[in-house]
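Example record

The entry below shows one chain as it appears in the dataset: sequence first, then structure tokens.
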Amino acid sequence: GPARQLTRYHDESPAWSPDGAKIAFVSRRTGEPSLWLMNVDGTMQKLLVRLPGREVRHPTWSPDSQSIIFWANFTGEPSLWEYRLTERALVQLVETRGNIEKPACSKGGWVAFPAAWTGQWEIWAMPLLGGKPLQLTELRRQVKEPAWSPDSRFLAFVTDLSGNWDIWLMEVPP
């Protein structure tokens, strides 16, 4: 059918909730990029997280549709954060800050993300329920845009390992 406009501001990064009921997104309507939520028909647009002078990027959902995980520089350096909808609580997921990019959540309850904590960008993952991040790749090249398989057994990502930006696939240990 025909496309229809859901928002009327500087909005981007839509992310569907796994239950199909909501869309999380980033909006600049308050000045800086902030985390917003709306029904899938565009109604009930609501600001969830805003910190003046800071920004939010790359929202993604937990598998149970109860939390939104996103990149933010609330402490001055990039980190991963979780907004728990029921509790209206904001939780920092990763203690190590800086050089973190777009996260991706698996149905198995893990979040994967690129980070340059070793001096090179690598893919890291950690359980959404907490724990230490585990380094999944050791490519010593640029990596970005992780994406989980539906069964959480594989992770696709983009790397320049071959000299070009290409999509690679790895099996993730259980």
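Notes for this example: The chain has a mean pLDDT of 93. The CA atoms of residues 54 and 75 lie 9 Å apart.
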